Amino acid sequence: MVESMNGLLSDAAVVQRVLDHVDNQTSDLGDTIWREPVENYHSAERFAAELALLKHLPVPFCPSVALPEAGSYVARVAAGTPLVVVRDEDGKVRAFRNACRHRGMQVAQGTGCTKYFVCSYHGWAYRLDGSLQYIPHRQGFPDIDDENHGLVPVEAIERHGLVFVTQDQKIGAGALAGLDDIPELLTPDQRIFASSENISDVNWKLNMEATLEGLHIKTLHPESFYPYGYDNLNVVECFGNNNRVTFPFRRIEKLRDTPAESRKVAGKLTYVYHLFPNVTIAVLSNHTGITISEPISPTRTRFVNYRLTNPGEGTNDDNLARAKRDAGFVSDSGGKEDAAAVQAIQAGLASGANQHFTFGRYEKAIVHFHQVLSASLQGLPRS
Ligand code: FES
Ligand SMILES: [Fe+2]
What we know:
Blueprint: H1 11-24, E1 34-37, H2 44-56, E2 59-63, E3 72-78, E4 81-87, E5 93-97, E6 111-113, E7 117-118, E8 125-126, E9 132-134, E10 153-159, E11 162-166, H3 173-179, E12 192-200, H4 204-211, H5 217-220, E13 235-239, E14 242-248, E15 269-275, E16 279-283, E17 288-297, E18 300-308, H6 317-332, H7 334-348, E19 356-359, H8 364-378
Antiparallel strand pairs: 1-19, 2-11, 3-4, 3-6, 4-5, 5-10, 7-8, 8-9, 10-11, 12-18, 13-14, 14-15, 15-16, 16-17, 17-18
């Protein structure tokens, strides 16, 4: 079978398309170019609209394996809103606005495992389902009605190994159908071996763009990625609102003599999945990297990073060691070059040289990203 349900090519078909590109010195091409106004990388108005969209859509919050057992929680800011997501006793994932119903203190920080969320200010306690469990010095609050003083819930749903959160609405049938476009990217056996956050003075979209094309492999990464890969040789697939960009390694050519049905892609290519709007999942040779780009301001972004072993590689120590080496190589070499490039672009906006940026036909996934973003912003209900 060439295509899966969501329209993505099978591994064998991707390998064949890569080998054809190698032979013909070609790469996947989109139908159209896109001109993105430069003001969209620093305008407060555009930023507010994008934040509203991030609250309106089901957006990945963390991998499911970040919540391995009852009481496991992750607290962080998503689209400007402090949230806490927790696995309840019944295994269901729940999400709440991270604010105590007494005087608003955050009830959870970072990650951990707990039976109750106990506010560190005056000790109000909440169960994992968000309900109010205990108020110290209760006689001081004669009129408090417990039923209406639980943590305020937001919608959370698990799909494809990810927890999605929607902040300003119920997840409707349309949004659920959109999630069905996504393949099973993450599996329960994967192990998180590193998680981190870093902040950079860039618009959140610049980082997405740097991840979604291979046109810069030779010029920006001459000694890091290029010796192992190709310049401008990618398979680019759009599925639903999302994209998958394949970055092959030169050693993929060893598969020429392998029958198509036996061609294994592990170690031969990197799949970068872009889940609209702000998440990338890169399945690399020996590990999987998830990056969630959380906009802080029009010119500042927090990157939430998870590093996991690859599907099927679970907790074996050898695999874990290989995954850590792989992750170290990627972030120490080419990753730093990409980060420096997008910071330079953001700083360069002040030059006033450009009214728009032009994304060409080899930058097909970025064109699709901006097409979907632009259409989604227009379709957003006005408040
Ligand atoms: S603010 Fe949480 S107990 Fe007072
Ligand atoms: Fe790059």
